[in-house]
Structure formats: C-alpha cells, structure tokens
Design brief:
- This protein has a single domain (4-70), classed as Ubiquitin-like (UB roll) (Roll).
- The protein contains one helix and seven strands, in the order E-E-E-H-E-E-E-E.
- The protein has one helix at residues 22-28; strands at residues 4-8, 11-15, 20-21, 35-40, 50-52, 57-58, 65-70.
- The longest helix has 7 residues, at 22-28.
- It is globular and about 40 Å long.
- The termini are far apart.
- The model has no long low-confidence stretch (mean pLDDT 90).
C-alpha cells in the first residue's frame, strides 16, 4: 500500500496503512497517550473537530486533517 498523506497540527505526515487507531495516528507525529485527537473537516474547521478515542479505527484518506492537544488542556480556564 502507498503511504497516505494526512495532516496533524498543520504538518504533513504519511499514514503507512488504513485503518489506523487514534493512538497510532498520534504516534505518527510523536504524540503519546497523554494527548487527545480530533478529526477536522479541513484546515481551519471552526467546530474544533470530532473527538477520536485512542482505540477508534479511522479509514485513512488523502488530505485528512487532525488536531492533537494535551489531554490536560484547560484552554480559557481562569487561573486563581
């Protein structure tokens, strides 16, 4: 099978197979299990994406976009 071009956090990666688990996709970009994965509807998706659990299989297609964020992220949280 030919490598499939995908994007994780706006960087291009080559998916070596299809399907791949959420954890395998994170591993392509050297992110570990302490990160969460979201599938975007394209670059600049205003929805923030659809969560992909670590054990969920995703069919790889050229041009897919994903976002990886730390699992303990508190974006916008007020620090006291």
């Amino acid at each position: 099978m030919t490598a499939i071009p995908i994007h994780i956090n706006r960087r291009r990666y080559e998916a070596p197979k299809s399907p791949m688990s959420g954890l395998e996709i994170l591993g392509l970009a050297n992110y570990g299990a302490d990160y969460e994965l979201f599938q975007l509807q394209g670059e600049g998706d205003p929805s923030g994406g659809t969560p992909i659990p670590h054990d969920q299989e995703v069919e790889m297609k050229p041009g897919l976009h994903f976002r990886a964020i730390p699992g303990n992220a508190n974006f916008g949280a007020i620090q006291r």
